[in-house]
Specification:
Elements: H1 7-15, E1 25-26, E2 35-37, E3 41-48, E4 51-62, E5 66-71, E6 80-85, E7 90-102, E8 105-112
Antiparallel strand pairs: 1-2, 2-4, 3-4, 3-6, 4-5, 5-8, 6-7, 7-8
């Protein structure tokens, strides 16, 4: 018998490389991997010449290899960051692929540098 998983549990499993093709996942913009729509708090940390920076953002969607987040602040494309998906208890490093203005916010594309991890 297959256990019934919540959307959050399916996302955690998908990000661990276990599941694909679940309800709630979408393929768009010519992507080869499905993305799962998910709304969670994201802490983003990076270093600039004047010191350590941190912002809190909201996730829009995620896949095993990247995510789209929304923030009131701009982060320059090419910046290496450390991300913490608070409610999912997942963390890891990423690279900013793009930062596009959307009204008063910015849509930021993240490319994960490796698998996300669960902090101890």
């Amino acid at each position: 018998m297959t256990p019934i998983l919540t959307k959050t549990e399916r996302l955690k499993n998908m990000l661990a490389g276990a599941l694909f093709g679940q309800a709630g996942e979408t393929r768009s913009e010519g992507r080869s991997l499905a993305r799962c729509r998910v709304k969670t708090r994201v802490a983003v940390h990076w270093r600039e010449a004047d010191g350590q920076k941190t912002l809190t953002a909201s996730s829009v969607d995620m896949s095993e290899y990247g995510a789209s987040i929304e923030s009131s602040r701009l982060i320059a494309p090419g910046t290496n960051v450390w991300v913490e998906f608070k409610d999912l208890r997942l963390t890891g490093s990423a690279h900013i692929r793009h930062c596009t203005p959307r009204g008063s916010k910015h849509r930021i594309g993240l490319s994960f540098s490796g698998p996300l991890m669960r902090p101890l």
